[in-house]
# Entry
Amino acid sequence: MDIAFWQILLITLYSGFQIWDELHLVTSIGSPLFAGFFTGLVMGDMTTGLLIGAGMQLTILGVGTFGGASRIDANSGTIVATVFSIGIGMDPQQAMSTLAVPVASLLVQLDVLARFANTFFQHRIDTAIENHNYKSIERNYLAGLLPWSLSRMIPIFIVLTIGSGVITQAVEFLNNELGWLAEGLTLAGAVLPAVGFAILLRYLPVKKHLPYLILGFTITAIFSELFTDVSLIGNEVIGLSEEFAANFNELPLLAIFFIGLAITYIYYKNSTSKASPAGPSAGGSSPDQESVEASDNAEGEILDDEL
# Structure
């Protein structure tokens, strides 16, 4: 597998930028899905990049950095898995379980190191505040970007330049001598997105909105099955008539989207109508309303100020 220097350079620069976006800009450029898209674009196979990126995005769907805690570096794992999946021709699901998840877990340590290194600049900012040196505050604030970016750029650069031969040999050995293990890892990679959904459901107020959860699952299953059959019929018709060029692939998600939008709007209208004061008094809320709000918050729902 040969990776051009310009590809290594672009991917390395992106790995340093994405953590800044995740911490400051928050434009979704620093997400596993975009990391897979960008890496796949640079490597010449966006499909594989999107598959790995979407899988890792779902895997960490319910994982957050509450209280400043470190989580697995899914972006760097996505980058490494995408590069070698495209370069070696590795199955994307196998690349997720054998490369993306281990790399993401390993780089947690560098995330902690970056946080620790940033305390140097934080203490300098404290001193600058006491001295009213605003220029120094700005400089040290921007300098805090260096530990974060280097904690991603250095390992990514090393892996892409030095580790390609080792990973290539390991993957060949895995697929040839340990075929049974490779199949198991591929299956594990396919299951990983379900883990993200399970973690997310753990934190969502499922008991409070259980009917919506059941309804959404049922609608998704029905429409997916229905439009799968319609798509198969359309493919058969295309084979009989070249003039027939309809595409039904987007219909399931489109139908589910509009149904979910309608249900969300109904729920929103009901919530706003219940929140409006029913009595003549304009100030304060009724005891019944306060009890309802207290019971809602007692469900364990994570509020905005806890994120």
User: Anything to note?
Assistant: The chain has two domains: 5-204, 208-270. The longest helix spans residues 210-240. The CA atoms of residues 66 and 307 lie 6 Å apart.
